Backbone:
């Protein structure tokens, strides 16, 4: 974007209303964020808009800086123009104001760098020179194969000081072996407390609210076990397709992209024992125990306990959309799954014998992430004309997104004379109605937690490896038994086999189409 065009955007933004959130004053020490993969999709879509929000809200010291690093030949000026373009594209207009944009862009620099070669490292050192009192964060938004090499390069270039930390984007590796290798290589350079393995689901407000719901209320814990809960469903459904990330996605598939990290981390928070204190290691210790207690899905069980799917052309948001195989960057005979559902258990005292169903997919009927806790029926009905089966069992739905909130489905008496008629009613707690303030993006919180040096909401090395250990037999089984992904039409709830899997257990998925905001 030429300078004049950039100026025009800034001027246009000047007319937009500022977000109107009181500036709170810096909550973290000054920092330099160096983003490897500085021209990538994640950087423009999530990292920079989130960093902008922290600057705008006055949460960071104004001297803090962001340095994009990538192979692309580009001047700092041109990079800033692309950043501005990304902010206007990915943030609502009322979250942008010209003064904050100008101040934010002034703190952005760019270094053209060859992560594996020698070019650009002196330039990066020069860009960081003089900021030795700043916390130095190296954010690796690159392919995981080069996490280790980049760390070694940082070390050789003498860029790591005692205030340095490294952030690793998921997925950490492609399987257990590569994850171990990455953890080993990065661990040769950075100590474990300085390694932040990000899973942005842990930064979502409603995922953290799960901790509040479970451990800041006495109501739920006595019932939070397989004696009172019949099963749990965790769904992360998306309406988007692969969105220009075909090259990465086609190698990964939904199991690696979503289940190994986001869904298992959410499952851990649902199932873990109360930590004695909300301290980093005690929370991570409890999550690890769940990952280690997950009932293994043996290779020969994959056909009964997992379903893979791949979308075909269909309709999403009223528009015709292509099938997965016709998306850019996808090989024409790709066997990557864009949908997975599975059934597992947690083998411990609290959850013995009770299934957890997980499901995620792209191009599904609606965008929704939710946890559904299905309680058991009452043991006996006192109501004439209603058997205990006719009293609809309670269900607690924790909406992660959109319309974040908690919904408790309960039986209630229908008003009016003429006998006691019962029907299901829902008690709704909507977070946006209750807390009338902006819900920050998950990355905002997590990016600042790195600067604070607080890894509670990040994955520890052993957690990542335990998750891969559980995932690997599923991948092996799919390969060994040549389980192809079953086709499903874009805009539906995935392959019918997924419905059949849960219906074999006389249960059904909680499918509600919700309007996207
Ligand atoms: C990312 C996955 O980790 O999470 C993407 O790589 C997915 O494929 C995204 O779309 C979903 O995140 P959110 O926050 O939009 O639910």
Residues:
């Amino acid at each position: 974007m030429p300078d004049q065009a950039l100026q025009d955007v800034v001027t246009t933004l000047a007319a937009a209303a500022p977000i109107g959130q009181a500036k709170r004053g810096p909550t973290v020490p000054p920092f330099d964020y160096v983003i490897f993969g500085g021209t990538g999709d994640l950087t423009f879509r999530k990292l920079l808009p989130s960093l902008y929000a922290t600057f705008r809200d006055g949460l960071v010291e104004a001297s803090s800086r962001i340095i994009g690093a990538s192979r692309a030949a580009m001047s700092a000026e041109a990079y800033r123009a692309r950043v501005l373009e990304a902010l206007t594209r990915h943030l609502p207009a009322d979250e942008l104001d010209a003064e904050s944009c100008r101040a934010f862009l002034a703190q952005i620099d760019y270094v053209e760098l060859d992560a594996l070669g020698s070019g650009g490292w002196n330039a990066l050192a020069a860009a960081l020179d003089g900021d030795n009192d700043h916390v130095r964060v190296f954010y690796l938004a690159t392919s995981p194969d080069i996490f280790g090499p980049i760390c070694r390069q940082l070390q050789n270039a003498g860029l790591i000081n005692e205030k340095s930390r490294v952030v690793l984007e998921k997925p950490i590796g492609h399987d257990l072996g590569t994850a171990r290798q990455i953890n080993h290589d990065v661990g040769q350079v950075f100590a474990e407390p300085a390694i932040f393995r990000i899973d942005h689901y842990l930064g979502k407000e409603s995922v953290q609210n799960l901790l509040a719901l479970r451990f800041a209320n006495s109501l739920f814990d006595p019932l939070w076990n397989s004696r009172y809960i019949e099963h749990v469903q965790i769904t992360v459904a998306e309406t988007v397709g692969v969105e220009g990330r075909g090259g990465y996605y086609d190698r990964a598939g939904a199991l690696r992209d979503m289940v190994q990290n986001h869904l298992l981390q959410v499952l851990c928070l649902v199932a873990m024992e109360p930590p004695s204190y909300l301290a980093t290691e005690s929370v991570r210790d409890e999550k690890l125990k769940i990952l280690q207690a997950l009932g293994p899905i043996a290779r020969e069980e994959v056909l009964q306990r997992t379903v893979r799917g791949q979308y075909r052309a269909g309709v999403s948001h009223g528009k015709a959309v292509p099938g997965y195989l016709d998306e850019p960057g996808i090989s024409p005979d790709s066997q990557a799954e864009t949908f997975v559902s599975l059934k597992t258990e947690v083998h411990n005292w609290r959850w013995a014998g009770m299934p957890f169903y997980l499901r995620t997919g792209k191009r599904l009927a609606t965008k929704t992430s939710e946890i559904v806790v299905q309680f058991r029926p009452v043991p006996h009905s006192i109501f004439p004309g209603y058997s205990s089966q006719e009293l609809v069992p309670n269900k607690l739905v924790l909406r992660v997104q959109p319309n974040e909130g908690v919904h408790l489905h309960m039986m209630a008496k229908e008003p009016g004379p003429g006998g006691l008629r019962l029907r299901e009613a829902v008690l709704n707690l909507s977070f946006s109605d209750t807390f009338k303030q902006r819900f920050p993006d998950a990355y905002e919180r997590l990016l600042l937690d790195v600067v604070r040096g607080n890894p509670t909401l990040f994955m520890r090395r052993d957690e990542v490896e335990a998750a891969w250990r559980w995932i690997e037999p599923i991948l092996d089984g799919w390969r060994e038994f040549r389980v192809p992904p079953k086709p499903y039409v874009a805009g539906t709830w995935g392959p019918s086999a997924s419905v059949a899997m849960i219906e074999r257990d006389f249960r059904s998925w909680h499918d509600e189409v919700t309007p996207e905001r």
